[in-house]
Amino acid sequence: MTIISSENPNRLVNEKSPYLLQHAYNPVEWYPWGEEAFEKAERENKPVFLSIGYSTCHWCHVMAKESFEDPSVAEALNQSFVSIKVDREERPDIDNIYMRVCQTFTGGGGWPTSIFMTADQKPFFAGTYFPKAYFLDLLKAISEKWAEDQSALLNQGKRISEALSQPTNFSQTLQTAPIHAAVSALKQTFDEEFGGFGQAPKFPTPHILYLLLKTEPDMAEKTLIQMYRGGIFDHIGFGFSRYSTDRFWLVPHFEKMLYDNALLATAYLMAFELTGKEIYRSVAEKTLLYMKRDLGSPDAGFFSAQDADSDGEEGKYYGLKPEELTALLGETDGRRFNAYFGITQNGNFEGRNIPNLINNGKIDSSMDEFLPKVYEYRKSKTSLRTDHKILTSWNALALAAYANAYRILGTQAYLDIALKTVGFMDRELTDGDTVFSGVTSGVRGSVGLLDDYAFYIYALICLHQATQDPVFLARAQSLQSKAISEYFDQEDGGFFFSGKSNEKLIFNPKETYDGAMPSGNSVMVYNLTRLYALTNADAFYTVLKKQEAFMNASSAGYPPGNSFYLYSMLPTTEIVCVLKECSDLNKIKIKSDWIFKVTKNSAHPLLNGATTYYVCGDGVCLPPSNKIPEH
């Protein structure tokens, strides 16, 4: 058995992923995903243990400390298995497939994902976190079964792989998108007192809020306000944690992800656009500040996440005691601060306090003056680990958020950030019309997956709508055409998760479920709808119609699970603006449900020699007008 130590690290020491590097000095003889590991398993006739996680995952840390750093576990793994570590954020294609496997075995999923499989990547057993004692028993049982009746495990792996690789046959098809059915289902689980859906845990799921802001705004607003009041929003340093462990949005799972914050920033911006309420503007701006300050990279990209743990303890960074605040701010201001944010002697989380406004009836913006001082004090006590991977799909969502912020708020600083980000992405994350998955420590990842293309095209459309710069529209068109050729199923509709240029795995799904992030298939409907309206390209229209039929069939069984798709199918207003003076564009507030295009096309002449608007919506085109559209 090879003993791994600081003098003799395992093969992960040469990787770039922060998650893999966290395990580079485990006594487990880890391999990265690749031919070397599978050839060894084939040559030595051993099963493969695949462990999938990510660097800011709390239960990944727990299993690492309990098992992967333990010599007895390492001995069992090294003797009878070939062990592979995968960063799910670096390889979402592997994660997507084996999460489906885990859900098949257990009825649920999560990280770390633990998979036992054959040398040809066919899984025969799966789970998530295993306590050390159970894990040791499981390793013993599987190694004995492999020695005594290997064919049973091989057949099990073959059956599971064949079942999962079957094309999806949807139980029914629909002629139109089931928007009403989705909203009705969401009403059934809506928490009228605290917002959100169901009891606990509660996830923000921003794209559901996008849909509801246009269909049932009261439900969306209730949820947005309660999320902000709760501890899932960091009232000291800003930004949102991943989800709430309780009904009240009080105690979060503390890791902060770039994608959550980017999607939620846009949700609050949309709410401000709809209502004009300053609270939504404030939360959006605080979230955007968090993203740039805490996740922004020096070269204009965005890092992926911050850890839930500090000093080996989940949430320690965020917890405060009342005496800390009175010592820091003075007795009078400290008491006011504590009363406002619900900071008590008893605490609300393991003897400390998560600042929140759940029981505070009034929002007092004067408290903001104390936040920088408390933020710096909190940072001086302990720190959070940041995952420095720069992922293309997540950076695209951040780009979209800043573009939307400029369009809705008109703040030049947000446009400056958006332009620097798109410049970085075009320079570092693409090569012509090839999009890469990301960059870590200056090294590009593999060719991108569907989500990388879909989200980047989406961001470019958002940036085009914010600026009306034709460069961004042309770039979106080019990448959309490439994505169609790489990922689209011309025969049955739908985009595959992996493309022709990606590594071939045991099967290639078409992901349609809008979970923590929208699916690439849902986002592609948004992209194709807008690109066709803006370009009149027949190729986009043909794919759009097939994609709509595919997504209608997919969403029929559980409409809320395709909320971003349904949001994409809501009515839009198409506006062609023929400018007399370029400065006239500055007078126009382009709205989220507009598809806005500036043209000098003679097919759309000026009316009365002034800037003219041609407006179509709900199947009706209005006469040309010089009046700036309002709806």
Describe the overall structure.
By secondary structure, the chain is of the alpha+beta class. The chain has a five-stranded mixed beta sheet with strand order 1-3-2-4-5, sandwiched between helices. A four-stranded mixed beta sheet has the order 19-18-20-21, with helices on one face. The longest helix is centred in the N-terminal third of the chain and has 33 residues, at 132-164. The protein is globular, with a radius of gyration of 26 Å. The model is unreliable at 1-5 (pLDDT under 50).
Keywords:
single chain; 631 residues; alpha+beta; 5-stranded mixed β-sheet; 4-stranded mixed β-sheet; 21 helices; 21 strands
Strand content: 5-15%
Number of helices: 21
The major β-sheet equals: 5 strands, mixed
Give the structural class: alpha+beta
Rounded to the nearest angstrom, the distance between the terminal CA atoms is: 71 Å
* Strand arrangement across the biggest beta sheet: 1-3-2-4-5
In short:
This protein is of the alpha+beta class and 631 residues long. A hairpin with a 2-residue loop joins strand 16 and strand 17.
Strands, helices and their partners?
Blueprint: H1 18-22, E1 30-32, H2 35-44, E2 48-53, H3 58-68, H4 71-80, E3 82-87, H5 92-106, E4 113-117, E5 123-127, H6 132-164, H7 179-189, H8 206-215, H9 217-229, E6 243-244, E7 252-253, E8 256-257, H10 258-275, H11 278-295, E9 305-306, E10 309-310, E11 313-314, H12 322-329, H13 331-340, H14 371-381, E12 386-387, E13 390-391, H15 392-409, H16 412-428, E14 430-431, E15 434-435, E16 438-440, E17 443-444, H17 450-467, H18 470-487, H19 520-535, H20 538-555, H21 563-568, E18 573-578, E19 594-599, E20 612-617, E21 620-621
Parallel strand pairs: 1-3, 2-3, 18-19
Antiparallel strand pairs: 2-4, 4-5, 6-7, 8-9, 9-12, 10-11, 13-16, 14-15, 16-17, 18-20, 20-21
Helix pairs in contact: 4-6, 8-9, 8-10, 10-11, 10-15, 11-15, 12-13, 15-16, 15-17, 17-18, 17-19, 18-19, 19-20
